[in-house]
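Quick bug: Hypoxanthine phosphoribosyltransferase output formatted oddly.
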Amino acid sequence: MESTDVQADLKHVLKSKDEIQNRIAELAAEIDRDYEGRDLLIVGVLKGAVMVMADLARALHSHVTMDWMAVSSYGSGTQSSGVVRILKDLDSDLMGKHVLIVEDIIDSGLTLSWLKTNLESRGTASVEICTAFRKPDAAKVAINVKYVGFDIPNEFVVGYGLDYAEKYRNLDFVGTLAPHVYE
Ligand code: XMP
Ligand code: MG
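Here's what came back:
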């Protein structure tokens, strides 16, 4: 049997469940205020954004519609290259819509920068970005992110949708991995 002690795989907790939930509630309140009287389409980027989409959507008081996209960035290993391929496109027509892209994490910013431009080219009224986490020290492109949960150090993190080899997405907190997991 594989170990079920997930905690033992983690070096430390970066953001606890409570910290994340409180911050998501604050972001939702801001979003409610900013989009008052307008229809909003929130677009989750699979798979990482599943947790933040679910929590953010439930914390919002306004009417929103939800859609999903899956993209993969070509690149060597864990490095994003900025060349993006759409694996699953949106079901919705974006013409005239106010769109909020919801992401788990922004690292280099290359994926999001490409995605924002791509969605804007479909005749949207506006496109903004909400991310649970951002690594400012890893930024390779300047990208305007309107809603940021937490700025975090440039370390690999897992949990709350973020994975290492598809594991740890289901954690309700975010932490760094113990070296024994990946060495
Ligand atoms: P870029 O560099 O284009 O890439 O902003 C963003 C995507 O890279 C993944 N990513 C991570 N995944 N822990 C993860 O589990 C991390 O610390 C991490 N940093 C980047 C993620 O898929 C994100 O959408
Ligand atoms: Mg991702």
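Actually, after a second look the formatting is fine. The beta strands are 10-15, 40-46, 64-74, 83-88, 98-106, 126-134, 147-151, 157-158, 174-177. Closing.
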